[in-house]
Amino acid sequence: MKKIQANIKYIALVLLTGMLAVACNDDGYADAENGSTPTEAMNGEWWIDISDAATGDLYVQHAMHRTYDDNNGGMWISDRSGSSFTGWWLESVVNVDTKNLTFSATDAYNAADESAVTITEGKIIKNGGHSATGVVVDSIYFKGVFNYDPETVLIFAGTKRTGFEEDEY
Questions:
Q1: What are the start-end ranges of the E strands in the chain?
Q2: CB pairs under 8 A, 24+ apart, for 93-99?
Q3: What is the pTM of this model?
Q4: What is d(CA 127, CA 106) in angstroms, rounded to the nearest whole number?
Q5: How does DSSP classify residue 153?
């Protein structure tokens, strides 16, 4: 019986040593890509105010928007949060100039409400804004016109979300 127990301990020790040797092996990660995308410098979460360009009336304050790569040379801009929308029902792909951090769209499909949207003067300004607590962050600005109300130009302007609780709205 003692011989069986000794063999089991020996086998367990060999298996444990083998698992540790394999678990500590980091070969193969040298060529791994970090997963960056072409629009990485423009991606993020944004607190955006939406106002009327002609009157200055503020329609929506601190709406959460997200920008992210569309895997096809463009960038999504969306105010979707789960199954609802927090701003003006915007979810569309825009054309980007990643060198100048600008973006635009002409009669682009708006997946939020199946309308069309034209986005002009879109830009991201590095370190161009301040969070609620004064932290320097990137800012975003663009104008939007929706085909269901072509006479109204909306201004979307805001700052990048820091992720700090004290900066949340």
A1: 44-52, 58-69, 74-78, 80-81, 84-85, 91-97, 102-110, 115-130, 136-146, 154-160
A2: 94/119, 94/122, 96/38, 96/39, 96/42, 98/38, 98/39, 98/41, 98/42
A3: 0.78
A4: 28
A5: P
> What is the Rg, in whole angstroms, of the alpha carbon atoms belonging to the chain?
25
CB 143 within 8 A of CB 117: no
Contact in structure between 108 and 94 (CB atoms under 8 Å): yes
Amino acid residing at 10:
Y
Question: pLDDT tens-digit profile of 121-155?
Answer: 999 999 999 999 999 999 999 999 999 999 999 99
How far is Cα 125 from Cα 42, in angstroms, rounded to an integer?
Answer: 9
In which residue are the tokens 């063999």 written? 7
In tens, the pLDDT along 48-105 reads 999 999 999 999 999 999 999 888 889 999 999 888 999 999 999 999 999 999 999 9
CB 73 within 8 A of CB 38: yes
